[in-house]
Amino acid sequence: MKIKSEDMLDAANEACELLKALGNRHRLLILCQLIDGERSVGQLADFLGIRDSTVSQHLALLRRDKLISGRRDGQTIWYRIDSEPARDIVTALYKTFCATDFTCVNDDLSSATE
């Protein structure tokens, strides 16, 4: 099966946008945390060790690229992954880099949400 050149260009552009978002360490770690479920700005900031406002800036970029979405619950906004391609790539990265030689840090936030 041969893919049309125009379709290939469109797919390449979409892939580049996703990889650009994942190319930032903080945004990659945010998406890694969201693989396991919803997180708030405060939880993500605690995990990353950065200010809430900085996390919010990263979340805004991820929302702009339609990789995540949020839902309001009172004063808290809970964020989740909204993009299946992003979920697939982050899952593949986890399997490659986290599941074998060392453990990615998901335990900290798992206990915070229980």
Automatic annotation (TrEMBL):
Family annotation (PANTHER family)? ARSENICAL RESISTANCE OPERON REPRESSOR ARSR-RELATED
- GO MF annotation terms: DNA binding; DNA-binding transcription factor activity
Give the InterPro entries listed for this entry: ArsR-like_HTH (IPR011991), HTH_ArsR_DNA-bd_dom (IPR001845), Metal_resp_trans_reg (IPR051011), WH-like_DNA-bd_sf (IPR036388), WH_DNA-bd_sf (IPR036390)
What is the organism of origin for this protein?
A: Martelella alba
Q: List, alphabetically, the SMART domains matched.
A: HTH_ARSR
Q: What is the lineage of its organism?
A: Bacteria, Pseudomonadati, Pseudomonadota, Alphaproteobacteria, Hyphomicrobiales
Domain HTH arsR-type spans what residues? 9-101
Q: Where is the signal peptide?
A: none
- Keyword Transcription (UniProt): yes
**Does Cytoplasm count among this protein's keywords?**
no
Recite the UniProt keywords alphabetically. DNA-binding, Transcription, Transcription regulation
Q: SUPFAM superfamilies from the xrefs?
A: Winged helix' DNA-binding domain
List, alphabetically, the Pfam families matched. HTH_5 (PF01022)
Protein name, please? Winged helix-turn-helix transcriptional regulator
